[in-house]
Amino acid sequence: MIRSMTAFARQETQAEWGVLTCEIRTVNHRYLEASFRLPEALRELENGFREELRKTLGRGKADIGFRLQGTEAADTSIAVNDALVASLNGAINQINRTLDNPAHINALDVLRWPGVMEREEQDLSPLKAVADELFGRTLEDLVRVREREGERLRPLFEDRLDTMTTLVEQVRDRMPGLLKAQEETLRERFRTAKVELDPERLSQEMVMLAQKSDVAEELDRLEAHGAEVRETLQRNDAIGRRLDFLMQELNREANTLSSKSIDAEVTRIAVDLKVLIEQMREQVQNLE
Predict the structure, then answer these.
(1) Does the model's pTM come out above 0.90?
(2) Each residue of 111-168: pLDDT tens digit?
(3) Any idea what the Cα angle at residue 251 is, between residues 246 and 255, rounded to 5°?
(4) Nuclease among the record's keywords (predicted)?
(5) What is the distance of C-alpha 258 from the center of its chain?
(6) Could you state, in order of their start, the residue ranges of all structural domains in the chain?
(7) Three-state SS at 153
(8) Statement: 7-73+123-151 belongs to CATH 3.20.20.70
(9) Using CA atoms, how far apart are residues 68 and 39, in angstroms rounded to an integer?
(10) CA torsion angle for 218, 223, 226, 230 (degrees, to 10)?
């Protein structure tokens, strides 16, 4: 399964306490790296979220954000500390009896005193349960998006691999005739220079040339690595790192083929191979 590391997913849920939204963005990264932005009420769930994320995603930089929009009913649950107000009232009356001209203290002055107004303790367990379920749904949606994006790249890989196979076969077909052409070119140079040709020396030169220009192993390895790429694309686990390694191996063989080339056409084919490999390598960088 081909999975892209670039994806976005958003889910939200609504209840009597308000609207809770979860968003997850991922981009390509060498390892799995996650950053969370959570409301204070959900802060203790972060470790659980990280563990679930680690089990689901293999690689990528993930940005996870929760946003809680409370309802008016949830925001106005305020209580008055009656015991503290009674104590304050007694202290105020005592001071007023002592002062000659006491200032009037109204209710708002009392409400501003620290601890007089109290927000009622809310039961956050329903919110936490909903947040946990919402994160799971958003993560599932994210995985589906990553898989869709990754599968869109499959035709690109298959097209490049098919073209590479054709180019490798072209080189393989040309190699037997190249040595004969080189021998004829060498003979022609000797004839032009009117120099007597030593058959034994010519045979030695041709053997050395054949050894230097032998690319059979490189062609075999190009075919083998291409077949391994095809097989890797069919796996269900994370394949990005393995494909990245195979792209390096393919590029190494294409470079060797180019350096051993004794023919302009073979050199052109080697350049075309490197272009195709680089196109695949750029896409591999974004795969999980």
Answers:
(1) no
(2) 777 877 766 666 678 889 999 999 999 999 999 999 999 999 999 999 999 999 999 9
(3) 150
(4) yes
(5) 33
(6) 7-73+123-151, 78-119, 154-284
(7) coil
(8) no
(9) 7
(10) -160
